[in-house]
Amino acid sequence: MPGDPSPNFTQSSPARLRGPAVRELERAYDALARGDIASAARTAFDFSKDAPTNPHPWIILGGAALTTRKGGEATAFFREAERHGANLPLVHEGLAKAALLDANPVQALRSAETAFSLGSEDAGLLHIFVDLMSIFGRQAQIAEIAGNALRAVADPELCLAAGYALVDADEFRAAVEWFEEAWRLAPETPSTRLAHLAALVLSNDLTAADAFYRAEEAAGRQTDAMVALHMRTLRETGRHDAALRLVDSHPFTDANAFAQAQGVAANIHQDRGDADATETAYREAVLVTGAPGKVAKAFGTFLFREGRFAEGVPFYAQRFDGPTRAMTPETNAAPENLEARERIFLRAEQGVGDQLALLSLLAWTPLDAARQQIFFVAEPRFDALLAGNTAGVSVLSRERFQATVAHVDKRELVYLGDLTRYLDGVETPFAGPEPLIVPDARRVAELRSRYRGYCPGRIFGVAWHSANPLGHLRGIALERLLAEIPKGALVINLQYGQHDAEIEAARATRPDLRFITDESVDQMTDLAGFAAQLAAIDTVLSIDNTTVHMCGALKHPDTHVLIPAGSECMWYWGRAGDTDRFYGCLKLHRHASPQDWTASLASLRAAL
Asked: Where is the signal peptide, in residue numbers (predicted)?
């Protein structure tokens, strides 16, 4: 089990209590902190007889039980304390640790969340919490739930743990905050200096990242992990030869860092169009070093893009660590298991676009919504989006799932990405013949009528930016995209986030266009509204981001996608061709080489 459930009451004394008798409780807390369990328990027991509705003696007795590793007794004491002091963080800290001793991680996580909502600052519980959130695939919520506690405890190792968990969840901007906080707290330790370099790279501050690495190198402090990160800087600034020389010349001793560096080398080989060298780099990273995780996942998706699905599945399956895989094995997605279950819980992973794409694979699985319950465990914003979906999927929020998972047969759990095993042998398009998403017809009609009121001509929608750390390799300047739109058209801003300055500059280059940002639709939080907005638009122009997957799931009739070349070409689109093999409805316009928009824009211009 993760973490150490030992009690830690040294930070929380009953200072809120008053009166002579309270001194006895204070002595009991002090005895518990010193490890004098007998004295602490005896004093607390005597106090409980005189004041049975005071929660503190029960807390102390619970702490004593935790120290002796008696989870059941501890739970009973803390439950009694909860009856009389439900708002005390100590109560829920104790319940979380007792649940962990009883091998009940679901209850442990639930109690930990309550403790942090009440202001807990227990460092030991934070370590347990970060581990459990990772196991349950909820890394993205770590900072939201426990951010205040992390700041209050000010432990650089905890900040690092939170940062790396957020990176695993692809929450890069949130990870940067905790990497920088760790470095601020302990700027001279190797782990936090590495975290600072990672924060610079993830923030795309590549000039600063280069300078920091050079300073570490000059001081003889660069580590294998720093070398792997510096390779990213070299690659993203076009210094490919230097990056490849570095991976060949550096004497790596850290297998994981070597695997990461080879993963960067594989990206460079993809950018150069050398599939053989790409495969060699990946195989050396994954097979020789035995390193699972992101590099294994990247190799799997490379093979998917090559159309080698059966070969890619075993590597893609290694994207999770051991404890996470133990809870939801890849074999749960096998047809014999899916056919035997009365219900299946599909666990969300990756971003919104990936989830829509992978949900579309349900058409090729043995699952049958007519005889089985199919739950999609995801964020609440999917609930309205998938209302009436053609796959027969019911959305179950992660919070509700967590409350019931203890009663779920482990064989009923399937990671969404594990459905990729059904790609092998399926004719393109991979997505089912029907739209996955059924937008709200009333809202579609209302939006389309409103947009027609602005301009009676053709309605265009545009998205041009990606917030991913590598998004600058696939994003395009808005004014370049607007240059391809016919005169006098209405243009709807589909881009999430604030881009006011860029929009105003682009407007100045095309004063003949009517450019609208519809404040009634939030593309991040209101996914159902976003789907209705897309359905109300005639033609969508976008880079490869969530917008195009939403259009694919809608079977939008006129969506044009600018597809980057090299490693930034996602596996969904294959290596070549202008036909969308995944959804069967998107029009693809490919770069001839990485970051060269000439060919893709010329193709788009001809299509429009």
From this structure: none
